[in-house]
Design brief:
This protein is of the alpha+beta class and 191 residues long. The protein is 28% helix and 38% strand. This is 2'-5' RNA ligase.
């Protein structure tokens, strides 16, 4: 496992998810380019989160997480379909995301959470419903968000596959969180 950093003044938060296929990432970056003004705050890194682990610093626990993720990967790629937009409220932040219709990915996220509990992670949290975060829209008038969604809705329906899960770290300070891929776990037989 990559040596995870612990810089002073920043909090490292671990998330398990999937790096997006290049075609989907390009499409979503194009959507972000069409935000009308600076009140729309684009996510700094586009990915599909499955499970938040929280702040992990214990080296033994990091090794258990690594071992569990190596053993949880499916044998074949998993497909999913993007299915429109989703607005969600967490704490005092309103986020715009792309909904994912993924029976296989739902099952994988539950397996990941169970494996993390067995590895010793306290209270791993599932991301439900599965959504690719696109932007924070807390300060955007709701009518503007609605109009933007109606204008861009047809662009979000497509089928994709993933062939690995990724352990991400999130470094938070006063600015937008920085998401960093730390380790990739390829599905069996896929390099």
């Amino acid at each position: 496992m990559t040596s995870l950093r612990d810089d002073e003044g920043l909090t490292m938060y671990l998330i398990i998810g999937a790096t997006l296929p290049a075609e989907l990432r390009t499409t979503l970056l194009g959507l972000q380019a069409h935000f009308p003004d600076k009140s729309w705050v684009p996510e700094s890194f586009l990915f599909l989160p499955f499970c938040a682990l929280g702040n992990i610093t214990d080296p033994t626990l990091l090794e258990e997480i690594d071992h569990a993720l190596r053993n949880i990967c499916p044998r074949t790629p998993l497909s999913f379909t993007t299915d429109g937009f989703e607005l969600s409220l967490r704490k005092d932040r309103i986020s715009l995301g792309i909904k994912v219709q993924p029976s296989q990915l739902d099952h994988l996220s539950v397996k990941i959470r169970s494996a993390m509990q067995r590895a010793g992670v306290q209270n791993p949290k599932l991301y439900t419903p599965l959504t690719i975060p696109l932007a924070a829209v807390t300060d955007v008038p709701s009518l503007n968000v609605s109009q933007w969604i109606q204008m861009h809705h047809p662009q979000t329906f497509s089928e994709h596959t993933i062939s690995e899960i990724t352990l991400f770290s999130s470094w938070k300070n006063e600015e937008t969180p920085l998401i960093i891929p730390e380790e990739e776990y390829h599905f069996s037989g896929i390099i």
